[in-house]
Amino acid sequence: MGDMLLIALVAFLGAAAAGLLGALALRLFRHRSLVVSVTVVAAVAVTAMLAGTLAVAWGMFLSPHDLSVVTTVVAMAAVVSLLTAVVLGRWMVARSEDLTLAARSFGDGGVFAAPVQPATAELAALTRELAATSAKLDSSRERERALETSRRELVAWISHDLRTPLAGLRAMSEALEDGMAVDSPRYLRQIRTEVERMNDMVGDLFELSRIHAGSLTLTPARISVYDLVGDALAGADPLARELGVRLVGERIDAVPVEVDSKEMSRVLGNLLVNAIRRTPADGTVAVAARHSDGGVVFSVTDGCGGIPEEDLPRVFDTGWRGSDARTPPAGAGLGLAIVRGIVEAHAGRAAVRNVTGGCCFEVTLPAA
User: Fold this and answer.
1) Within 10 A of 208 (CB to CB), how many other CB atoms are there?
2) How does DSSP classify residue 326?
3) Keyword Chaperone: yes or no (predicted)?
4) Closest Cα partner for 266 from 307, 245, 235, 244?
5) What is the DSSP string of 180-193?
6) What digits encode the pLDDT tens for the residues 143-197?
């Protein structure tokens, strides 16, 4: 038993010496290629075995012939091990270079194309993560391009919508100033109408800028859905009467919600005004509010005839109008964008779908 312990101690000391040298070599070559590191690891393993074997062999006083046999066997094992380490290292480096090239094209703004050659489990996992990141960034770039397009359209539309009433205001003011206005009260009423329309447009722009900047401050309070819908219907009733549209309150559940009543009144008001203006005379705009598993669902159904399927994803985009009209009551295309921003600030969601004869806008809010 004592001899075995002595042999184990001698072998351990020889292998430990080789291991310390190998650790020093790895530290020196830690910034070099992976081939060098793998070769060093293989060399350390073989050298540790050789050192332990030779230490024990010398301690056992083997004959020169036996010692040379042991040394030759270990040397051959070392050669095979080192060759295997070099081949493995070169294969791993090649797979790493393939992944580097794919990542470089991905970083240059292209689409990440995963290498076709098989790789290690770690490199394969990294490849999958890069592919998933590429898909997310591609989707983000698409959204950014769509947002930039909508912003440019908005600037063009707002410029047109502001220029038109300003030109009219200047013409009417010059007519009044020169005493050329035949019906001064009518001119003054028209000036007030145009000023109010421009004020509404500027107010919408300010509200949208607060939403996009994340500075929209909410003051939530517990309120009944019945009261919220009732106030919105009362506010939209004059416009509906003027345009000959019937407002109908269908199913309205008297359930509570915790919202900013002012902002949510604006949401329902925007939806109702949009629905009334898009519904032909003698048409019907139906409002409903019901409790569901996902929260409280407000819906406004109009008789606009429906929205083209290709336009449905853009309905809530900034500047979307649904037509090329640039005259009142087309608006600046901000109302539905404001609706989505306010609803999302309440941790809700806004959606639209086509129904028979029109479309249905739905706003889902968390239940109180």
Assistant:
1) 20
2) -
3) no
4) 235
5) --S-HHHHHHHHHH
6) 787 777 767 766 776 776 677 778 888 888 888 887 777 778 888 888 888 888 7
DSSP assignment of 96-149: HHHHHHHHHHHHTTS-----SS---HHHHHHHHHHHHHHHHHHHHHHHHHHHHH
Contact 190, 172 (CB under 8 A): yes
Residue that the structure tokens 């939403």 belong to: 211
pLDDT tens-digit readout, 269-307: 889 988 998 899 888 999 998 888 778 899 999 988 888
Question: How far is 304 from 354, CA to CA, in rounded Å?
Answer: 10
Asked if residue 208 lies in contact with residue 337, where contact means CB atoms within 8 angstroms, the answer is yes
* DSSP letter for each residue of 226-294: HHHHHHHHHHHHHHHHHHT-EEEEEEE---EEEE-HHHHHHHHHHHHHHHHHHSPTT-EEEEEEEEETT
Q: Which DSSP category does 359 fall into? A: E
Token pair, residue 368, equals 């109180």
CB 12 within 8 A of CB 52: yes
Q: Is 289 exposed, middle or buried (0-12, 13-18, 19+ CB in 10 A)?
A: buried
Q: In terms of pTM, does the model score above 0.85?
A: no
345 contacts 211 by C-beta, under 8 angstroms: yes
What does the block give as tokens for 164? Answer: 């038109």
